[in-house]
Write a structure and sequence with these properties.
It contains six helices and eight strands, in the order E-E-E-H-E-H-H-E-H-E-E-H-E-H. By secondary structure, the chain is of the alpha/beta class. Helix 5 links the parallel strand 7 and strand 8.
């Protein structure tokens, strides 16, 4: 890991996150939001990859020190998440990045995976300081983004064989966003599964789709945040 754990203010309390900064010293800011496993090495590695591409990337620890490799425990942690505290964490992370000396511009991007994908959209709807939103197969039954307040364009990546977020759900999100007058682009990758971007899970990782999504995402953030 090339970054470091930091603390940031979250509505009067302190929260932690993993921060990676570019070698060039400055760049646009990205919030990276975890899967249901927690702030694990895979998410930290994504921050490092963003930093290598010229971005300042922060992954807030939304489970506050907990993580797991057990799907049962991951489900429990996801469902136990406190939405109000999470909103404070997201807002605090955005403010921290915008105040950081390495950050350029006055907007941040958000990207999340699985649970984090839904939280990425939620953060973009709740905070006008989010200038670009990426959603990888987002899902959380208790997180309900208010699409009417969304100001950022949305880029979504989904999987054809995803039983958790099937293509019909992705197309419904696309339809809802367009009906609300929002800018959205949705990609559904054929023959791949939920979590196809996670290269630590060989049973679902799909390299070609992951590489394509990464390239599209970098281009999107470079366009919207510069």
């Amino acid at each position: 890991m090339n970054g470091q754990m930091i603390e940031f203010n979250s509505n009067g309390t302190q929260s932690q996150g993993y921060l990676a900064t570019p070698a060039a010293g400055k760049g646009p800011a990205i919030i990276v939001l975890q899967e249901w496993w927690g702030l694990v090495d895979h998410i930290k590695d994504i921050c490092d990859r963003f930093a290598a591409a010229g971005f300042v990337a922060l992954a807030p620890d939304l489970y506050h020190g907990e993580s797991t490799t057990s799907p049962d425990n991951a489900g429990r942690l996801m469902m136990a998440i406190n939405i109000e505290r999470t909103e404070n964490d997201l807002r605090g992370a955005v403010n921290y990045l915008l105040e950081h000396e390495a950050t350029t511009g006055n907007k941040v991007g958000t990207v999340g995976f699985c649970m984090g994908g839904q939280l990425s959209l939620y953060a973009a709807c709740a905070n006008d300081k989010v200038g670009a939103c990426v959603n990888f197969y987002g899902i959380h039954p208790d997180v309900k983004p208010n699409l009417a307040t969304l100001q950022a364009p949305v880029l979504g990546f989904f999987a054809e064989n995803d039983s958790s977020v099937p293509p019909a759900a992705a197309r419904q999100l696309e339809s809802d966003l367009k009906a609300a007058g929002k800018e959205v682009e949705i990609h559904i990758y054929p023959g791949v599964d939920h979590a196809f971007f996670n290269n630590t899970r060989p049973e679902v990782f799909h390299q070609e789709s992951a590489q394509d999504a990464w390239a599209k995402m970098l281009s999107f953030f470079q366009t919207e945040l510069n």
